Amino acid sequence: MTTYPGLSGPIVCDYLSREQSRARYAPGTEFQIGKIELVSNTGTYVDTPFHRYADGDDLARQPLWPLAGRPAVVVRPEPEDGAAIGPAAFAGLDVRGRAVLVQTGWDRHWGTDEYLSGGHPFLTGAAAEALRDAGAALVGIDCLNIDSVADGERPVHTALLGAGIPIVEHMTGLAAVPDGARFYAVPPPIEGMGTFPVRAFAVAG
């Protein structure tokens, strides 16, 4: 579940185990209470504007409509590893009000050192501006970062989150998602936090 180099992985454990709970409850009655310690950028997660901008909407203020049931446009550019995906990949597509999901194929490396290597495909700033101007509701991708990590610039995060367009990173399984499926990636409404893991899924038909 470590999804970015240098960020610690989560700790998932019992706060109260079933065995411990037996001393607290009547015979035959037991419970498990879990405990999780994690960095907000863990697993598949959504970035809201607060992730990039101090005055942007955080998880608590982020509107639900872009994250819950948006019709999906799945773009399959088949880029080379490390390649930039420019605006031409989205030319002619109707993305207004839709969740734009970019299948790069990098998720084939999920769970390996290669996934974290930084050699993944990414969107260009011009592509992000084109999606913003075309009215995309959300943009997601199946790799380490929607931006290049070769330097400290993050033009895609800057353009999309600056326009209030949430980003979902580290998705897998986009090959199974058809165009028009309804996409969901809803986080808990936590104040003062801009990113959180989601159970991203699509409903077809």
Protein model, in words:
Helix 2 (125-133) packs parallel to helix 3. The chain folds into two domains: 1-38, no CATH class; 45-203, Putative cyclase (Glucose Oxidase, domain 1). It has helices spanning 18-21, 125-133, 155-162, and strands at 11-16, 33-37, 45-47, 68-75, 84-85, 99-102, 122-123, 138-141, 167-169, 182-184, 195-197, 201-203. The two termini are 31 Å apart. With 205 residues, it is α/β, with parallel strands linked by helices. The radius of gyration is 19 Å and the shape is globular. Helix 3 links the parallel strand 8 and strand 9. It has three helices and twelve strands. Helices cover 10% and strands 22% of the residues. An eight-stranded mixed sheet has the order 11-3-9-8-6-4-10-12, covered by helices on one side. The mean pLDDT is 97.
CATH C-level label of the largest domain:
Alpha Beta
By CATH's scheme, which homologous superfamily of the largest domain applies?
Answer: Putative cyclase
Main sheet characteristics: 8 strands, mixed
- State the separation between the terminal residues, measured CA to CA: 31 Å
Low-confidence stretches: none
What gyration radius follows from the Cα positions, in whole Å? 19 Å
- How many helices? 3
The coarse silhouette is globular
Mean pLDDT: 97
Q: Helices and strands in order, then pairings?
A:
Elements: E1 11-16, H1 18-21, E2 33-37, E3 45-47, E4 68-75, E5 84-85, E6 99-102, E7 122-123, H2 125-133, E8 138-141, H3 155-162, E9 167-169, E10 182-184, E11 195-197, E12 201-203
Parallel strand pairs: 4-6, 5-7, 6-8, 8-9
Antiparallel strand pairs: 1-2, 3-9, 3-11, 4-10, 10-12
